[in-house]
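Structure in, sequence out. Go:
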């Protein structure tokens, strides 16, 4: 349930309607709206703004609503939820509502910085492939990959993504909301390795099934592998993810591996073969493996909380000092490398203890 501000003129619009999701990040919301305004297609596009109710940061929530009222077009439909839904419920619900009225849609969230040519690319792609049943979505964001050897403006892969994207009613009707059904299909057709592609998406899908997490986009991804759908990507990113900060729902890390430069030139949607680009799929796989915490050393780092790190390095420091005190001076004189190694261990242990103590202080 929710209430609406503003009315839409239902005259036939030239471009696909846009959904903007916002909540309690007024600065990012304003930046995103300003990005949309710099796209010339925006003036002839219908904007739907969905604002989820929040249970915290009420001042920021109210400021966000005010910024939207002041900066959204006069014919924008602003839907304010009366209850907190959370993105796993709010996003699919809103997309379904809009696609009940229109045959295509562009979806963005408040933490995206958009190229001045984002809407052109999205609309060109949505128009060109509207009746191609092999294509399920158009995506504006691209990982920071080196595609210098690829000389075309666009390519196809399966990954539908969720950072500045668009789709059609015909594709959304295939959206499999039941994670159990997707899991069964992926197992039966031996698609797990392909579905994961460098990241444990299948494990994530099982967590959704077991109600350990709430997530809509991994179910959307599964839909593309179940139905063998492709997504059109630009060879240069037209979107940047600016949401890597403490108030983000996902992806908050010290290093934002999703960060990329935004391409400020038009991307031509020309004729290319509608087939999965296996080479770029493999680049996606390599990128995710190297940056999304999939390497063994990254998994170890993720397990080491500041408190555990302090305990481990304290034990290492104690052992090092113990050995240093017990070894005869003559032995250390004859084997200087042993002494250097122990002193180095003491220094490193002390340093990491200090760093992790500082982390705990900053959190408190």
């Amino acid at each position: 349930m929710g209430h609406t501000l503003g009315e839409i003129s239902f005259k036939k619009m030239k471009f696909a309607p846009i959904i903007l999701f916002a909540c309690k990040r007024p600065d990012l919301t304003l930046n995103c709206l300003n990005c949309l305004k710099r796209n010339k297609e925006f003036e002839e596009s219908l904007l739907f703004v969905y604002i989820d109710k929040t249970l915290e940061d009420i001042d920021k929530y109210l400021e966000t609503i005010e910024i939207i009222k002041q900066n959204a077009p006069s014919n924008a439909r602003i839907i304010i939820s009366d209850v907190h839904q959370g993105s796993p419920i709010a996003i699919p619900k809103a997309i379904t509502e809009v696609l009940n009225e229109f045959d295509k849609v562009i979806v963005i969230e408040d933490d995206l910085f958009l190229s001045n040519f984002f809407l052109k690319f999205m609309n060109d792609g949505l128009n060109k492939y509207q009746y191609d049943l092999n294509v399920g979505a158009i995506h504006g964001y691209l990982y920071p990959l080196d595609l210098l050897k690829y000389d075309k403006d666009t390519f196809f892969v399966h990954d539908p993504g969720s950072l500045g994207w668009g789709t059609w009613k015909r594709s959304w009707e295939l959206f499999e909301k039941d994670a159990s059904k997707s899991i069964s299909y992926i197992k039966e057709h031996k698609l797990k390795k392909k579905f994961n592609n460098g990241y444990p998406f299948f494990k994530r899908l099982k967590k959704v099934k077991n109600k350990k997490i709430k997530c809509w986009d991994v179910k959307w991804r599964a839909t593309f592998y179940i139905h063998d759908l492709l997504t059109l990507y630009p060879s240069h990113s037209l979107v940047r993810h600016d949401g890597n900060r403490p108030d983000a729902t996902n992806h908050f890390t010290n290093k934002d591996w999703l960060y990329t430069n935004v391409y400020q030139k038009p991307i031509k949607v020309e004729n290319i073969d509608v087939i999965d680009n296996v080479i770029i799929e493999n680049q996606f796989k390599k990128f995710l493996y190297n940056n999304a915490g999939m390497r063994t050393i990254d998994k170890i780092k993720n397990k080491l909380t500041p408190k555990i790190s302090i305990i481990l390095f304290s034990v290492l420091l104690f052992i090092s000092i113990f050995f240093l005190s017990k070894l005869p001076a003559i032995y250390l004189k004859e084997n200087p490398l042993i002494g250097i190694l122990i002193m180095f261990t003491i220094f490193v242990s002390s340093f990491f203890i200090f760093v992790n103590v500082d982390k705990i202080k900053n959190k408190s």
